[in-house]
Design goal:
heterodimer, A: 122 residues, mainly beta, seven-stranded mixed sheet, four-stranded antiparallel sheet, 0% helix, B: 113 residues, 51% strand, globular
Chain lengths: 122, 113
């Protein structure tokens, strides 16, 4: 069965950086686009970034461009999100999600991890 | 960015009654070449990640009860729950994936009246 397990969250001081990981299993990882979505406490869903199946194309929410980097290692079935210059507004649960269809860039998300909580606080 | 606006923000419906949630996009999300609407609906229960209910505006995902129906085209979409069950209490989100700058609606909270 498909599993997505995020890690790397925690309490981090403002201005610091963090790298989140999402380990995937149960499907052919190298043929699916992957995404990160975040949810601030008590708020709605905010798409953060996406990466194509082969890592050649990366997409970022306009408001976050420049501070966030997405990457993937298909040999390890893992997708990463690097977040720099963290601020209080980045406090959220970060979910990774799998694209529904293979090899495409325009897909909904059919599987989600349980999320990892990032708290930015001094 | 394509802005997705849901209405209402919250909704209370009696058990067994119909619930209707609307979603409007700021521009068309109908791709003319394949006549597909790039619209998904998600259900999120407290403490859980979102769950995809409907893709391509009207394709119900495997295992989703048939009381959930997605409809609409172009810029106006609807998620209908034909007969509300207690387990349907959740927040519902629409999402457009028409372009690579994916956006979600603000969410609609559905409760039992």
């Amino acid at each position: 069965q498909v599993q997505l397990v995020e890690s790397g969250g925690g309490v981090v001081q403002p201005g610091r950086s963090l790298r989140l990981s999402c380990a995937a299993s149960g499907f052919r990882f190298s043929t699916y686009g992957m995404h990160w979505v975040r949810q601030a406490p008590g708020r709605g869903l905010e798409w953060v970034a996406g990466i194509s199946f082969d890592g050649s194309t990366k997409y970022f929410a306009d408001s976050l461009k420049g501070r966030f980097t997405i990457s993937r290692d298909n040999s390890k079935n893992t997708v990463y999100l690097q977040v720099n210059s963290l601020g209080a507004e980045d406090t959220a649960v970060y979910y990774c999600a799998k694209a529904l269809g293979s090899n495409g860039d325009y897909e909904p998300f059919d599987y989600w991890g349980q999320g990892t909580l990032v708290t930015v606080s001094s | 960015d394509i802005v997705m606006t849901q209405s209402p923000d919250s909704l209370a419906v009696s058990l067994g009654e119909r619930a209707t949630i609307n979603c409007k996009s700021s521009q068309t999300i109908l791709y003319n070449s394949n006549e597909m609407n790039y619209l998904g609906w998600y259900q999120q229960k407290p403490g859980q990640p979102p769950k995809l209910l409907v893709s391509w505006a009207s394709t119900r995902e495997s295992g989703v009860p048939d009381r959930f129906t997605g409809s609409g085209s172009g810029t106006d979409f609807t998620l209908t729950i034909s007969s509300l069950q207690a387990e349907d209490v959740a927040v519902y989100y629409c999402q457009q994936y028409y372009n690579t700058l994916i956006t979600f609606g603000q969410g609609t909270r559905l409760e039992i009246k």
